[in-house]
Write a structure and sequence with these properties.
This protein is α/β, with parallel strands linked by helices. The chain has helices at 2-6, 33-38, 50-53, 62-75, 111-117, 119-133, 149-169, 186-190, 192-196, 206-214, 232-247, 265-271, 283-291, 295-307, 311-320; strands at 22-27, 44-48, 80-84, 138-143, 179-183, 201-204, 251-254, 275-279. Helix 4 (62-75) runs parallel beside helix 6 (119-133), helix 10 packs across helix 11 (232-247) and helix 12 (265-271) crosses helix 14. The chain binds phosphoenolpyruvate (PEP) and magnesium ion. Its main location: cytoplasm.
Length: 322
C-alpha cells in the first residue's frame, strides 16, 4: 500500500473537475518538517506552538522561538506556513505558567483568553518572534480559540503594535502578513459571516468544534459516542463556516482530524473547503482521495448527506459511497 501511495508524491492536488486544493500538514516541532517534506505536503496548515513551551521548566525566549519559526519558514521555502499562537489550557498544561487548575479546563482560562491577559510576558515575545521569522518565508499567524470579534481585534491590534516596534528598530518582517483564526467554538461558527469580513483566513478546528457543538469532552470515553464530525449539527456548522468564508473570498481550511477522514473528505470538497491540513503521514492518502473526486458530482451526495438528521444515517450513507 505504501508503494501505491508513493505514486502521489510530486502530483498536484487537483480534483477531476479541475479544482486545486491546498493539501498541507500539521506539525508541533521544527523537526517535524522532515516528514512534511517526505510526504510532499504543500505547506503547513497548523504549527501547534504550545509544544515549544511544553516539557521544559521555563518559557522559550523570543530568540529561541524566532529560531524555531525561522527554521520552519526556511525549510518550507516559500510555501505557506500557518503558525498558531500559544494554545494552552484545556488538555495542554504548562506547569511553569502558574495556571491554577480550572474546574472546567476546556471552558476556562485558555489560549487567546490567557494570551490577551498575560500579554506582556507571553504574547508579545511570541508575536515578535513570529513577525521577525516572517522575513524568511511565507508565514501566516493564526489565533486559536476565538469566540468573539473583540478577541480577534485585540490580537490584531497587538500585532500592529509589535510591527510598529520592529519598524522603529529597523527589523525586517513581512508587512502584509496574513492573520487568521481557528474556527473551533460554537460562537465563532455562528458569527462566521462577521469574522469573514475581518480576518484573512479561517481554519476549522473540528477537534474542538465537535467538542463545543456537542457539549462533549473530547477526551472522555464515556461520552465519545456523541463525538463525531459526521453529526448533522457539526456538519451544518462546518458547511456554514465554509459558506461564510467563501462569500467573503477568504481561504477556508481545516486542521482538525476530520480533514483526513475519508468519510468527511467528499463532503468538505462539496462544501467548498480550500485547504486540508493533517498529520504528514495522512497526506498522500488524502491526495489519492481528493484527486479521485469531481466536486460538481459531489453536490448531490452532499445534499443527500445533509438531509439526514442522525449521525448514524450520515455515516451509513457515506460508508456506502466508499
Ligand atoms: C482542533 O481543535 O481541531 C485543532 C486542530 O486544534 P487542537 O487539536 O490543537 O485543539
Ligand atoms: Mg483546538
Amino acid at each position: 500500500e505504501k508503494k501505491e501511495l508513493d505514486q502521489y508524491i510530486g502530483k498536484p492536488t487537483v480534483t477531476k473537475d479541475g479544482v486545486t486544493i491546498e493539501l498541507v500538514a500539521n506539525i508541533g516541532k521544527p523537526e517535524d518538517v522532515d516528514k512534511v517534506l517526505q510526504y510532499d505536503a504543500e505547506g503547513i496548515g497548523l504549527f501547534r506552538t504550545e509544544f515549544l513551551f511544553m516539557d521544559r521548566n521555563s518559557m522559550p525566549t523570543e530568540d529561541e522561538q524566532f529560531e524555531a519559526y525561522q527554521k520552519v519558514a526556511i525549510a518550507m521555502n516559500g510555501k505557506p506556513v500557518i503558525i498558531r499562537t500559544l494554545d494552552i489550557g484545556g488538555d495542554k498544561e504548562i506547569p511553569y505558567m502558574g495556571l491554577k487548575k480550572d474546574e472546567n479546563p476546556f471552558l476556562g482560562y485558555r489560549a487567546i483568553r490567557f494570551c490577551l491577559d498575560r500579554r506582556e510576558d507571553v504574547y508579545r515575545p511570541q508575536l515578535r518572534a513570529l513577525l521577525r521569522a516572517s522575513a524568511f518565508g511565507n508565514i501566516k499567524i493564526m489565533v486559536p480559540m476565538v469566540t468573539c470579534l473583540e478577541e480577534f481585534r485585540e490580537a490584531k491590534a497587538m500585532i500592529e503594535e509589535v510591527k510598529a516596534e520592529l519598524d522603529l528598530k529597523g527589523i525586517a518582517y513581512k508587512r502584509d502578513i496574513q492573520v487568521g483564526i481557528m474556527v473551533e467554538t460554537a460562537a465563532a461558527s455562528l458569527m462566521a459571516d462577521a469574522f469573514a469580513k475581518e480576518v484573512d483566513f479561517f481554519s476549522i478546528g473540528t477537534n474542538d468544534l465537535t467538542q463545543y457543538t456537542m457539549s462533549v469532552d473530547r477526551g472522555n470515553d464515556k461520552v465519545s459516542y456523541l463525538y463525531s464530525p459526521l453529526n448533522p449539527a457539526v456538519l451544518r456548522s462546518i458547511r456554514h463556516i465554509i459558506q461564510c468564508g467563501r462569500k467573503e473570498g477568504i481561504m477556508v481550511g481545516m486542521c482538525g482530524e476530520a480533514a483526513s477522514d475519508p468519510l468527511m473528505i467528499p463532503l468538505l470538497l462539496a462544501f467548498g473547503l480550500n485547504e486540508f491540513s493533517m498529520s504528514a503521514s495522512a497526506v498522500l492518502n488524502a491526495r489519492k482521495l481528493i484527486t479521485g473526486y469531481s466536486i460538481a458530482e459531489l453536490q448531490a451526495i452532499a445534499d443527500k448527506a445533509m438531509s439526514f438528521v442522525t449521525t448514524k444515517e450520515v455515516e451509513a450513507y457515506m460508508r456506502e459511497l466508499q
